[in-house]
Amino acid sequence: MIRVFPRRTKWTPTDESAFVGDPPMFRPTDRCIPVRISVTFTWDIPEGNRLWRAWSSFYDDVQIGGPAFGDPGGEFTIGKFIKEGATFTSRGCIRSCPHCFVPEREGRRMREYPIKQGHIIQDNNLLACTDQHIKAVFDMLRSQRKAAIFSGGLDIRLLEPWHRELIDSIRVDELWFACDSAAMLKPLERAASILDGIPQRKRRCYVMIGYGDETVIQAQKRVEAVYAMGFDPFSQLYRGEGEKEYMQDWKDLNRKWSRPAAYKAASAPSQGHGGNCPDIRWCR
What we know:
Elements: E1 2-5, E2 18-20, E3 35-38, H1 45-56, E4 62-65, E5 86-87, E6 90-91, H2 102-106, E7 111-112, E8 120-121, H3 131-141, E9 148-150, H4 161-168, E10 172-178, H5 185-194, E11 203-209, H6 216-228, E12 232-237, H7 248-257, H8 260-265
Parallel strand pairs: 1-2, 1-3, 3-4, 5-8, 9-10, 10-11, 11-12
Antiparallel strand pairs: 6-7
């Protein structure tokens, strides 16, 4: 099967059957080979449709789909539509965040699947799964050669001390959380206490800015608060279903707080919890 993607990201597969953009000169010549165009973002749908027409000139079975078209997802196949190393062990989310498409696409009930190997956990809400499933995921992570990356995000409202025990039982590179509104600052503060002792460089936090009627000043205060609590923020301008336009002050704020080198250079040498790594298990 040929897999086609509208744009290259850090998650795009790199094997010989994965292509980005138009059909290249050197490609499989059998017209019967199925072609699947995967579109993740709604703003890439026009490009996906264009690619469908382009690839249909050379292959008979060309189909387009993906999250942008409401694909609910299912059991994960390693390396098919996301690079090897990443894995999904569940689908869905119990939350109803107004800015998020996951509950509508994948459902508000968690669907747990057989756990496939991978050190990068992409589940939308792993901590909403059953305790048995969560423990099984950590059992899998102990067998991985690379340190774990929880880039799908861990729900700070569900984080409990026993999760910290699981975290301490494996090698971790990045723990990702989210603070997409001012109301999430309090749960994040609670999470910071549970995660105390873990170096700040391992504690990452997605911070969506620009949603609703939020002002630049409000967004700046929130992202600064996240940093002060001991998390490295990664700001993301809200885009919705299209290309939302922002004034330069929003772009400047996002540019600074999406680049750790930029905001750490402008801050005091030591901020937040976990910077001095008092727990020897995390000094690696």
